[in-house]
Amino acid sequence: MSDRLTVLITGATAGFGAALARAYAASGDRLVLVGRRTERLEALKAELGGEVHVVTLDVRDRKAVEEAMAALPAPFDAVDVLINNAGLALGLNPAPSADLDDWDTMIDTNIKGVTYMTRAMLPGMVARDRGHIINLGSVAGTYPYPGGNVYGGTKAFVHQFSLNLRADLLGANVRVTSIEPGMADTEFSTVRFGGDKERAAKVYEGMTPMSADDIANVIHWVSKTPRHLNINVLELMPVMQAFNAFAVKRG
User: I need a labelling partner for 34 at 20 to 30 A (CA). Which of 47, 63, 64, 221 fits?
Assistant: First the structure.
């Protein structure tokens, strides 16, 4: 594989995805940017210049994913790196009062969307004997917290799915990495709280969270390491985030 990569990024219109697009454009890589908001995709393409192909796509739609990925034009069809970045958390209610529609949306996006995109890209990577699947997990997949319920469950899936892909791909020069960030200041909390920016800002009050650029720079580095090296799992947190004590209900 040459130093120049063809990189497909889902959820490219904001947050980690947009930061990743800028990081790879800066290193001269070829980009396939996938997202649901056409105007944002086109604006990002115009900003970046270079070789950029945009695809308006909802990763929850299995048929649309299959058709869009099969229709990628050359040379964008020979994807070296798939970054499964599209994902979200919705709500923070405890399980007995959580919204089932929110649960469905998280499962459809964070689990099914990841599997659809991965399955669409893997055969070509195996045939070319090169490639890298990078999945965006979360520390929520390892460390539970009140209200994390289905979101944490979806990210635990991403972690285990990534490890199982490694088992299936033994013998092929296709790498798999699960990137698992903690608190990062993007649109994530605003989406989680239904657009309430004030409530979202309180999540990061009094501390310095990671930025989208922080995460993008780490992922960019991971994908540029030598091909014989696989980083299985990489967990990141801001210095001022750590692990809670066990919760105990007394009385």
Answer: 221
